[in-house]
Amino acid sequence: MTNSENTLAPLEWKTEPGLTPYEAASEYMEQRVAHIHGGTASELVWFLEHPPLYTAGTSADSRDLVSPDRFPVYETGRGGQYTYHGPGQRVAYVMLDLGRRGRDVRKYVHDLEQWVIDTLANFDVIAERRAGRVGVWVTRQDGREEKIAAIGVRVRKWITYHGICINVTPDLDHYSGIVPCGISEHGVTSLADLGKDVSMAEVDAALKKTWAKNFER
User: What are the catalytic residues?
Assistant: First the structure.
């Protein structure tokens, strides 16, 4: 019996201390997805940080990997192109049963984007979607548009995994080793770069605060 036919336990929130190796996170997600589908585990939102690394999504173009020897590069089954993960970036891996939530992947991605937008609003940051671009963007006072959060989703048997990452205090120079998400004409930013002195714990609290509005309607 799957969770679509079963009553699922309440959503679990999990925060991982320190830096989590990408391989370990990927393996855990695969296991958790199988257990959610099998009805033996609850849905999960997992907060963590990774050591510096690049990931390649299913649409990645090798020409966008500018510095292939700078950090480890991991192939991943999520959608999208190259992205960076590292300290100071809040990664939230979201494992939900879309079989119970309408089986609408496009709506799910939209809800993830809105979750980030609503979270950043807690820190007086106006963040927006941009047509034709993945992720969440801010506009600087001089008109430059920069990416502050990335979205990458994978779905297996209607169970989601991977998720979002928000730049809180990462080393933005680490992005120079890739063309982030294949977009070279715009830069990246972070809460710290925008002059916002925000802790990771505060970001986590805001993510939890804005969750119900977007996912428990």
Answer: 181
Backbone dihedral angles phi then psi of residue 211, each to the nearest 5 degrees: -60, -55
Round to whole Å and give the CA distance between 171 and 87: 8
The C-alpha atoms of residue 209 and residue 118 are separated, in whole angstroms, by 9
* Residue 87 region by backbone torsions, left for phi larger than 0, else alpha for psi between -120 and 50, else beta: beta
User: What end-to-end distance do the CA atoms of the chain give, in Å?
Assistant: 25
Torsional class of 104: left (φ above 0), alpha (ψ -120 to 50), beta (otherwise): beta
Q: What is the pLDDT of residues 60-99, one digit of tens each?
A: 898 999 999 999 999 887 878 888 999 999 999 999 999 9
- Asked if the model's pLDDT at residue 165 lies above 90, the reply is yes
Rounded to 5 degrees, φ, ψ at 156 are: -130, 125
- Alpha-carbon gap, residue 24 to 113, rounded angstroms: 26
CB neighbour burial string for 193-205, b if at least 16 within 10 angstroms, e if fewer: bbebebebeebbe
What is the residue type of 214? Answer: N
